[in-house]
Specification:
Elements (H helix, E strand, L loop, with lengths): L1 H37 L3 H24 L3 H30 L2 H5 L3 H34 L1
Helix pairs in contact: 1-5, 2-3, 2-5, 3-5
Length: 143
């Protein structure tokens, strides 16, 4: 009887552990699906940053020859977009440098799940920031 209780407890423990391991693996995959979706957009950010910088230089030249409120407003918008693109780029770079999967693997299952959820939230915020800055910069450059 005592042996069967020990065996039952061991089976329950092993089942719970494997369930948590699967949860951890799934959550880590979700984190990297988001990362892998937006990482290629870093080149879009760089290209847009270059285009916006060119636009700022052009606007500076035009503003030297004549003062114009609409040109000044466009320059301010371009500067804001440049900052947003830079911030989005830095967000991804900072997330990648701070993420440490090996440290997460060293945590107990409950803590690993909590940390991975925080990481998923962080990379989702980076994704939003990147996509929004890209969309706004593209719309600006089409005008």
């Amino acid at each position: 009887m005592r042996n069967s209780l020990l065996i039952s407890a061991l089976i329950v423990t092993l089942t719970a552990c494997s369930s948590k391991t699967a949860e951890i693996e799934q959550l880590e995959k979700e984190v990297f699906v988001i990362h892998d979706e937006v990482m290629p957009k870093m080149s879009d950010i760089m290209a847009l940053q270059k285009s916006i910088s060119g636009e700022i230089a052009t606007l500076d030249s035009l503003l030297k020859t004549k003062a114009n409120d609409s040109l000044e407003k466009r320059k301010i918008t371009a500067l804001e977009l440049s900052t947003a693109l830079k911030t989005a780029d830095e967000g991804m770079m900072n997330w990648m440098h701070a993420y440490n999967g090996d440290s997460i693997k060293a945590l107990d299952a409950e803590m690993a799940l909590k940390v991975l959820q925080v990481e998923k939230d962080k990379i989702a915020a980076v994704k939003t920031q990147m996509l929004e800055s890209i969309a706004k910069a593209e719309a600006f450059l089409k005008k």
